[in-house]
């Protein structure tokens, strides 16, 4: 995993997003910070298209940051009088593109994107030992119909400053399998 300063930077950026996000009149309880493995996105029957800048880095990418309630529901009534203002984060956009840390835990726990099969518990335990919090895992299916590691869900407290244990986990999409593939990219 990257240094503590990179983690602090990431959580600081999450805090800025929390301040900039005003999608709910009611307070939410936590954020899902979700990262996506691009190899699993591309390794499906529909494939993928690279951006004009070329093939993305072979690393987890930000998939989203969403506010949630502790019961697993999410805010759905945005405050139209307080819309998102991208200019509030404009001064950090270049830093986001170059410095947003990735989830290096799998490679430091002998789980690497090499197309191999892994026990789902090994992936969860590897990330947990690195971060101190249990992640949620999302799967999709490759072009052969095998489940593969696609999303990693981390929970962040309401103020956007700390990782926390998730009060509820999303459906994994991994079926009843305990084996998932981690395709290279």
UniProtKB/TrEMBL annotation:
Keywords from the named record: Endonuclease, Hydrolase, Lyase, Nuclease, Signal
A Gene Ontology molecular function term of the record: RNA binding
Signal peptide residue numbers: 1-27
PROSITE patterns, per the entry: PROKAR_LIPOPROTEIN (PS51257)
Entry-linked Pfam families: Ribonuclease_T2
GO biological process, one term: RNA catabolic process
Superkingdom of the source species: Eukaryota
Keyword Lyase among record annotations: yes
GO CC aspect terms: extracellular region
InterPro entries: RNase_T2-like, RNase_T2-like_sf
Membership in a protein family: Belongs to the RNase T2 family.
Designated name of the protein: Uncharacterized protein
UniProt organism field: Rhynchospora breviuscula
């Amino acid at each position: 995993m990257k240094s503590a300063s990179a983690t602090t930077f990431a959580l600081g950026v999450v805090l800025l997003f929390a301040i900039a996000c005003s999608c709910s009149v009611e307070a939410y309880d936590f954020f899902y910070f979700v990262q996506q493995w691009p190899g699993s996105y591309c390794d499906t029957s529909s494939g993928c298209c690279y951006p004009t800048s070329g093939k993305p880095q072979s690393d987890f990418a930000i998939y989203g940051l969403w506010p949630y309630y502790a019961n697993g529901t999410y805010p759905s009534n945005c405050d139209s009088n307080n819309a998102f203002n991208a200019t509030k984060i404009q001064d950090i956009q270049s830093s986001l593109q170059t410095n947003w840390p990735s989830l290096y835990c799998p490679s430091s726990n002998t789980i690497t994107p090499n197309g191999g099969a892994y026990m789902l518990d090994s992936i969860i335990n590897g990330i947990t030992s690195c971060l101190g919090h249990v992640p949620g895992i999302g799967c999709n299916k490759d072009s052969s119909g095998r489940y593969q590691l696609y999303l990693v869900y981390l929970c962040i407290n309401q103020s956007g400053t700390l990782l926390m244990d998730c009060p509820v986990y999303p459906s994994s999409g991994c079926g009843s399998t305990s084996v998932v593939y981690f395709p290279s990219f």
